[in-house]
Structures are given as structure tokens and as C-alpha cells.
């Protein structure tokens, strides 16, 4: 049996997410935006809730197409509020639209969102050496800085905890615990 990070339950969805996605560096803007949407909706909820609704989010939010989302009408917003397959939080739905618009602004300014976000870690993952649950922080000085910058640009639901979870999800930081089979050995 493989040894995994402490947070992985026996849910196959969680196991697959941990083994195939979490902590794996993501450089394409489409996936970076998907995780931004999912992490902002996760604020205050469990990640398994989001994973269970991920395909519903994908359908509801046009496959996380930020170009389309940035142009959502009030009618589309209202229909999302009625969609029982997603988290029907008015502010979070509104933030997905706003964040899509701001995501595009960053692409225009930096050439891609990837260049912007990865510049915070010099374009390579930070490999942490955490041994147990208590070692893994909820926020760091770097997540504080990124959060502050995103908020200054107008992004919503990007507090430091959400940003750090995002950094973990997209592999900007590798927080697989040292006893996890996914922890790099070299």
C-alpha cells in the first residue's frame, strides 16, 4: 500500500486527485484559472466538497473558459445561482466573473497569468520538507504577499489561506510530506 499525505481519505476521488494533480506544477493558463475558481469556491468548505462538484462546475462555468466567464451576463449569473450542482454563493459566483476579467488583464500585462504567478517562486516549485500535519502551514509570508497583490488588483476570495492552497494545488510549492510516495527523492 502506498503511503500518502495525511489529508488523503479513502475516497477514490481524493486519492486520484492527490496522486495525479496536487502539487504537480501547472503552467498553462487554462488549468491555472480552473484551480483559481475551484480554490475560491472552496473558501470555508472542504476540498472534497469541491472535488465532488468539480464536473458540475466545469459544465456550469463553460469548461472554466475565462474568456467566456469574463463576459457573463446578469442572466447567466442568475442561472448559476439556480444551479444546484455548484456552490450557490452569490459573492463567489460574482467573484468568478470578476476574477476572469482580472485574469485577462494580468495576461495582457505579463504575457500570461502563468508568467505572473510563477514569477513569485522564480518559475520553479519550492520543495518543502514537511514531515507531519502540524508542519504544514495554512499561510506563508509569500502567500500573504501574493494575496495582497491579487486583492490590490481587485481579485476576490483570494485571502492568504486560499492563495496558499492554490500554490499547493498548482505545484508552486510541493507540500507532499516526506513520508508520501509523491515526495521527490532527488
TrEMBL record:
GO molecular function: DNA-3-methyladenine glycosylase activity
InterPro entries named among the record's database cross-references: Adenine_glyco (IPR005019), DNA-3mA_glycosylase (IPR052891), DNA_glycosylase (IPR011257), Tag (IPR004597)
EC number: 3.2.2.20
Entry-linked Pfam families: Adenine_glyco (PF03352)
Enzyme class of the recorded protein, top EC level: hydrolase
Regions crossing the membrane: none
Keyword line: Glycosidase, Hydrolase
Name of the featured protein: DNA-3-methyladenine glycosylase I
Natural source organism: Polaribacter marinaquae
